[in-house]
Amino acid sequence: MSEQTIKSQEKEVRVMNGWVMLVLNLLVLALGIWLLIHTLILVTRRGESMWISLIGSILIIIAGLISLGGFFTLQPNEARVLILFGAYHGTVRASGFHWANPFYTNGPMVSVASGEETKEKSVKITYPKRRYKISLRARNFNSDKLKVNDKGGNPIEIAAVVVWRVADTAQATFDVDDYENYVRIQSESAIRHLASSYAYDHGEENELTLRSGVDAVSQALREQIQERLAKAGVLVEEARLTHLAYAPEIAQAMLRRQQAEAIIAARQKIVHGAVTMVEMALHDLSERKVITLDDERKASMVSNLMVVLCGESEVHPVINTGTLYA
Q1: Where are the alpha helices (DSSP H) in the chain?
Q2: What SS3 state is found at 226?
Q3: Which of these, 154, 244, 141, 163, lies nearest to 199 by C-alpha position?
Q4: Which of the two residues, 275 and 176, has the higher pLDDT score?
Q5: Which residues face 164 on adjacent strands?
Q6: Same domain for 18 and 88?
Q7: Total count of domains within the chain
Q8: 3-class DSSP state for residue 259?
Q9: Does residue 306 form part of some domain?
Q10: Which of 7, 22, 46, 196 has its CA 20 to 30 A from that of 222?
Q11: pLDDT by residue (tens digit) across 216-261?
């Protein structure tokens, strides 16, 4: 079956004002009770058989009582999906006090943990879902720290926060079994896929990595999660990494590598600066004709200056009391 055939689509409907229907409902109940009492009085006083009036008053009272089940309230950014005998009739998005057909389904039976645990397993309570009410507010999903391999095969720990909300109530209700659980599983799957698509911090030249391209990686993560959650009618507003680190078993080795790379980078700057300074010294001495050095003495001078400029410890010079060539 094609995707277009099974895809649900939300349609917004309007229902009766709850306050108006409450007044009408009370009038119907009052009418039924008055008719029942009036009928019983006539039967008692006159002894007449008034079965039609008696049955009618009882039916009016029953209808009034059943009608009381059609009242419901919606808060701002909250919706209710209307289902009548398995058929989707629409979604109410307007906040306030409403009345709809009391036979609209209240929701499936849902099992939740009560928090009381036994030796074998936790105790679960089954209760009906509240009238297919769906929150349209923005919600956060904080993933656990997931251990995955990056593009280079290095084990890393990664976690993210996803800001999402329900955009299509019909898809969230009918196209997936439990949209909240669907968001959790698909988000974690997208995070794992993202981590395996990028290197942690040492990629090829000009390659985007998880550490160097935080904004681009977050945008790619949001797009991946949105693609997966579109089936559930969920809109992903933002997705960002909240934790990124090497796995503990290689963290020390990677730290030593980072330290070595930092030392190499520092040495490169020191050597580059020393070479520049030596070049300037030789150029100034030659240009100002302070002293004329042959190639051997230039090499000796360069060697001494490089030792002085690149050495880690303090240099103690030796004063030559003889000639330069002694």
Answers
A1: 3-6, 18-46, 51-67, 169-174, 179-197, 214-229, 248-287, 295-310
A2: helix
A3: 154
A4: 176
A5: 139, 236
A6: yes
A7: 3
A8: helix
A9: yes
A10: 7
A11: 889 999 999 999 999 999 999 999 999 888 776 655 656 666 665 6
Q: Using alpha carbons, list the distances in angstroms from residue 45 to 33, 39, 49, 50.
A: 18, 10, 11, 12
Q: Is 262 in the same domain as 223?
A: no
State the Rg of the chain over Cα.
39
Packed helices 295-310 and 248-287: angle between N→C axes, nearest 10 degrees? 140
- Residue 97 belongs to what domain range? 3-106
d(CA 193, CA 201): 17
90-145 pLDDT per residue, tens: 999 999 999 999 988 876 555 554 444 444 454 555 545 555 789 999 999 999 89
Residues 6+ apart with CB under 8 A from 92: 12, 13, 14, 15, 74, 79, 80, 82, 98, 100
Residue for token digits 């911090």? 201
Domain boundary (246, 267, 300) is at 246
Of 183, 179, 140, the closest CA to residue 163 belongs to 140
Residue ranges with strand state E in 35-154: 71-74, 78-84, 87-92, 96-99, 109-117, 122-128, 133-135, 139-142, 146-149
